[in-house]
Amino acid sequence: MHDFTTMDEQDLALVDALQLRPRASWSEVGRILGVDASTVARRWERLDSSGLAWMAAYTLPVDFLTARVEVQCEAGTEEQLARQLAEEPWIYIIDLVTGPYELLLTVAARDAPTLASLVSRRIGRLAEVRATSTSFVLHIYRESGQWLMDALGPDQLRSLRATPDRGTRRADLRFAEHIRQYLDQDPRISVTELSGHTGLSETTLRRRLRALEASEQFSIRCDVAQAPAGWSTIALFKLRVSPAEIDTVGRMIGALTGVRTCYALTGTANLCAQFWLHSQQEILEVEARLDRTFDQLIIVDRTVIHWSYKRLGRVLDPRGVRQRRVPVELGEPDSLTETSLTGDTATEPYLERNGTWGS
Fold first, then answer.
1. Which of 42, 109, 264, 279 could anchor a disulfide with 115, C-beta 3.0 to 4.6 Å?
2. What is the pTM for the complete model shown?
3. What's the helix, strand, coil split of the chain in %, to 5?
4. What does the alpha-carbon distance between residue 165 and residue 146 come to, in Å, rounded to a whole number?
5. Is the distance from CB of 17 to CB of 33 less than 8 angstroms?
6. Which residues contact 161 (CB under 8 A, 6 or more apart)?
7. Torsions phi, psi of 59, nearest 5?
8. Are 109 and 115 a contacting pair, CB within 8 Å?
């Protein structure tokens, strides 16, 4: 049974600490939080087992392509469609939203032709789908793995950040893919256990893991159920700014309080920002703040995400509590089949090559 109680300040501080240092020892985390290691370990076990918080590992190849797909559905079919699409490993995020479309998908593939084919064949042909609209993500100014809940003090943040800067090295993606399945199932798996799975020595694993943690192409993130953590509203703003100002504005918006993601994209709106808020009333405050801060900014659309159904390989309930894991993978040309969602046997070769999706 899931624990649906709200999270307290110590829970939020622990999540922030693990967001910054996901594989830090419990003794190190406890020292920074001012509690003993066994207390930290027990608290994390409660959060993880109840689905209130969790960790996930994923790779970010240099040449991958990310896109947003807005999906218009037949009336009353959005939950059924979300449930079907959640099994697609190349669909990283599924949001049920308000407005002129019902689902917002974040998808990833090796290249534009592969992504277009996947959207057309694996989404567009479904009976519940009326229309789709795709926009490519051009640059990310803030990604959700950088988001914190401001539950730690300045000294605690300095202690946790006293590590090599991310982005200073290139990851060994072959090694990352080799161990990702183990890290995604248990991001805090011990080096000894990893050695048993991979056949590599513990010394080699420690060195390679340090290199991964310092790279921009591999990430272990700690995530949280937004409603129990106090964030009842997720608002998404599509914005238009001058192309000459987009980098400056994108960085500034990405640094605003409450912003979880901010990125440039193709289309009439060239910038998108997601805010986690404590109430719907704060949406108006965000709009007023954007209007005051940026003279030339136009709000093209605002949307409320009323259910984050899937987030980076985790299926969530309407409160954001984790229900189960669905591994994520980049969309690949050789994995394309006529359909994967209607029971057609054409999906069988994919499953044989890649294993089950919902394990």
1. 109
2. 0.86
3. 40, 25, 35
4. 13
5. yes
6. 20
7. -100, 150
8. yes
Beta bridge partners, 55, equal: 222
The tokens for 103 are 């689902």
Q: Which residues pair with 222 in a beta bridge?
A: 55
Reported as half-sphere exposure (CB side, CA atoms, 13 A), residue 1 has a value of 3
pLDDT tens across the length of the chain (359 residues): 444 567 999 999 999 999 999 989 999 999 999 999 999 999 999 999 999 999 988 776 667 899 999 999 999 999 999 999 999 999 999 999 999 999 999 999 989 999 999 999 999 999 999 999 999 999 999 998 888 988 999 999 998 886 544 444 565 667 777 787 788 888 888 999 999 988 889 998 888 888 877 776 678 889 999 999 999 999 999 999 999 999 999 999 999 989 999 999 999 999 999 999 999 999 999 999 999 999 889 999 999 999 999 999 899 999 999 999 998 887 887 554 444 444 443 333 322 233 322 32
**What string of DSSP letters covers 251-265?**
HHHHTSTTEEEEEEE
Amino acid at the residue 90: W
Provide the residue type at 80 as one letter.
Q
Token digits of residue 30: 């406890």
Locus of tokens 């789709």: 132
Query: Hey, what are 66's tokens?
Result: 């990310």
H or E, element range at 115: helix 112-118
- C-alpha 125/C-alpha 108 separation (Å) is 19
- Residue pair 85/94 in contact (Cβ under 8 Å)? The answer is yes
Name the token pair of 353.
């090559």
Distance, CA of 105 to chain centre: 12
Distance CA 196, CA 264 (A): 43
